[in-house]
Amino acid sequence: MNLYEHTIIARQDISPAQLKQIEEKYSKIVEKNDGNVVKLEMWGLMNLSYLIKKNKKGNYIHFKIEGNGKIISELEKNEKIDKNLLRYLTVKVKKFDMETDYFKKNEEKDNINK
């Protein structure tokens, strides 16, 4: 089994319900192709470095996936035609980093450190 980290950037103007549908849609594609979503992180609305399709911000969704390369090709095939998505990126990793939450709010980090 290969390990992948897959990040999707959705448009800034979609509703939370649509965001949930996107999350479920791509999780089902992974499971249908004999894969496993180890962890799903909603990073939220963040600024983009540059304009993408006239958007300044994007909703980030990050998947940690266990499976084979067929899953990734199926995911990317569906993402190319999805009008709600701006970008996607898949990185093959040797080991998942399950401890670090890179995009936690500062207040939450302060509460954990106390």
Characterization of this structure:
This protein has helices at 16-32, 69-81, 106-113, and strands spanning 2-10, 36-52, 55-67, 85-93. It has 114 residues and is of the alpha+beta class. It has a single domain, classed as Alpha-Beta Plaits, CATH 3.30.70.
Give a brief description.
With 114 residues, the protein is α+β, with helices and mostly antiparallel strands. The protein has three helices and four strands; from the N terminus they run βαββαβα.
Blueprint (SSEs and pairs):
Elements: E1 2-10, H1 16-32, E2 36-52, E3 55-67, H2 69-81, E4 85-93, H3 106-113
Antiparallel strand pairs: 1-3, 1-4, 2-3
Mean pLDDT reading: 86
CATH architecture annotation name: 2-Layer Sandwich
Number of helical segments? Answer: 3
- How many domains make up the coordinates? 1
> Gyration radius, to the nearest Å?
15 Å
CATH topology group: Alpha-Beta Plaits
Structural class assignment: alpha+beta
Distance between the termini: 39 Å
Protein traits:
114 residues, alpha+beta, Alpha-Beta Plaits, 3 helices, globular
